[in-house]
């Protein structure tokens, strides 16, 4: 931990010595004691608790009126029938509530960014949510972010493709648990997306709606890039094919950073798949990064802040989401793999290890029909003892530095300090 912290400080020292950059180093020295503690989970919970006090209420109540609506209540009653079944909707629901994918945290981040940046002028008195110190429209936006992210996760991980099971002897009758679970997952995600669309329209801000629609487009694109198994689970690109592509097209340019110019444009995928960091970055920028980044940008749009501040908020949210994803990717490698647990085959440690030793792809390609055919215990052991773990930690530090750099362009405040603590609490011990 201390070596990575020092590496971040060294990177800061190489940047132009503006007052903002110097303040990053000073602040990280003050927070060094936070990063070296062993109780990472406790630090995370404490950071969120302090942040919730700043916005005036627990973010778990942000969407309470939707969770208590007739539609969601009926869905919850039907979901009880799935308890004890093998349908993935059950584990997905638990992950959303208790895991690092906790949906309310993103709404909290949007509110903190809103409070940190403030409003461009004093003409928003009648629109203030005084309990949170933000605009009512910004609070609505925070709810929208939670609903879109949650709906995407339910549709992504809570639906099971039953086509390849038709000849396997499973009960696929009309009222089977598998078919019933799929219906509930699809309906539940669609209800959340419908509510999000309604709330978005009520903002009555065409620029915000357009920007958030491009985030939804990016999420959709993330489900159709690279190789997939029959369940639509992503698979890494074959390293041999990547080597052939480089030989045949040596001048293919990497355009991952197209959002540096215009973040409303679609990303160009040319030459990206198969290059570990580029592939990982584009996958998670599309799936998560632009949603959080554009939500932070939209919050400042609603407050009529300058385009420059909006741009800073976008890149802060994007890099925070990527640092967060790197932290999630490292989580399974902190301990022995539990029995029956699966690993992401496109996580940063796996992709980096493939670059180091492409023979690992022989194990991964067993998942071409179904990733259930992969020996995850073997995969976990190989990757855990390879260079992919340390390179993923470096990747996390890289995006942490980028997020902190954007964060410290905003004036000092309690909200900024809360965001800083959230970022630092994600660091590995």
How many helices?
19
Structure classification: mainly alpha
User: What is the string of SSEs from the N terminus onward?
Assistant: HHHHHHHHEEHHHEEHHHHHHHH
Rg, Å, rounded: 22 Å
The percentage helix is 55-70%
Report strand order across the widest sheet: 1-2
Low-confidence stretches: 15-38
Q: What brief labels describe this structure?
A:
2% strand; two-stranded antiparallel ribbon; 19 helices; single chain; 429 residues
Description:
The chain is mainly α and 429 residues long. It has 19 helices and four strands. The strands form two sheets. A two-stranded antiparallel sheet has the order 1-2. It has a two-stranded antiparallel ribbon with strand order 3-4. It is globular.
Brief overview, please?
With 429 residues, the chain is mainly α. It contains 19 helices and four strands.
Tell me the layout of helices and strands:
Layout: H1 2-14, H2 19-30, H3 32-35, H4 40-55, H5 64-67, H6 70-79, H7 88-98, H8 104-117, E1 128-129, E2 134-135, H9 136-157, H10 177-202, H11 206-222, E3 227-228, E4 234-235, H12 239-248, H13 276-302, H14 307-330, H15 348-356, H16 361-364, H17 376-384, H18 388-407, H19 414-425
Antiparallel strand pairs: 1-2, 3-4
Helix pairs in contact: 1-2, 1-18, 4-8, 4-19, 6-10, 7-9, 8-9, 8-13, 8-19, 9-10, 9-13, 11-13, 13-14, 13-15, 14-18, 15-18, 18-19
